[in-house]
Design brief:
Elements lengths: L1 E5 L5 E7 L2 H4 L5 H15 L58 H17 L3 E4 L9 H10 L7 E5 L4 H7 L5 E5 L5 H6 L2 E5 L10
Parallel strand pairs: 1-3, 3-6, 4-5, 4-6
Antiparallel strand pairs: 1-2
Length: 206
């Protein structure tokens, strides 16, 4: 798959890059994508929620009423879950929601997501750029030049660039990642994938 390389003004530079067919031409596997996204979202959960069971409630253990002859159910403690203020039955406890996935499943999911983006023609290749200082206005200007100002955009850099990252951090519809930290969830979450020219060759390792 060949794509034209654009400059930051949105014009064609005359150069073209070839995206590896093994990554961008793979047959999408929706179940693999589902599993990887599920794992990603599970890993975002803090798992710090906690409720008290009856053994942890502070309260009297005095028997509330006699065992028989009241016409109602027997009750032995105010901490019983059936009473207001009592403990909770099978309440949540701190836990880790993460689960294991095989490396090949993650690889298949990432290739599936990238292939889907290629099929939708939602990938643009831009020549490498840099900022002398963090400037959100300059970053927005580049997106507008590429006609992506209103779309949710994921920009993929070849290497970490602090100025570009800081320039995009305050934008709700844009995110900047390096090629090494690109994940399946981000690929499908954002409408448009903007790939810097220097990172294209690294897609062959996916």
């Amino acid at each position: 798959m060949e794509l034209a390389v654009l400059n930051t003004s949105g014009s064609d530079t005359g150069r073209k890059v070839t995206l590896p067919a093994s990554v961008f031409g793979a047959e999408p596997n929706e179940h693999a994508v589902y599993l990887v996204v599920k794992q990603y979202l599970a890993n975002q959960r803090q798992g710090t929620h906690k409720s008290k069971e009856r053994a942890e409630i502070a309260g009297s253990t005095k028997k509330l009423k006699k065992q028989k002859g009241t016409g109602t159910a027997r009750a032995g403690s105010i901490k019983s879950p059936v009473f207001r203020g009592g403990g909770r039955i099978f309440g949540p406890k701190p836990r880790d929601y993460g689960f294991k996935l095989n490396k090949k499943v993650k690889q298949l999911a990432k290739r599936s997501a990238l292939s889907a983006k290629a099929t939708e023609a939602s990938i643009a290749v831009v020549e490498d750029f840099a900022f002398d200082a963090p400037k959100t206005k300059d970053f927005v200007s580049i997106l507008n030049n590429l006609s992506l100002g209103e779309k949710k955009t994921l920009v993929v850099l070849a290497n970490d660039d602090k100025n570009i990252f800081l320039s995009s951090r305050n934008l709700s519809k844009s995110k900047v990642v390096t090629i090494d930290s690109l994940n399946t969830y981000d690929i499908i979450h954002y409408d448009q994938l903007v790939v810097c020219e220097g990172s294209v060759e690294k897609f062959a390792n996916f």
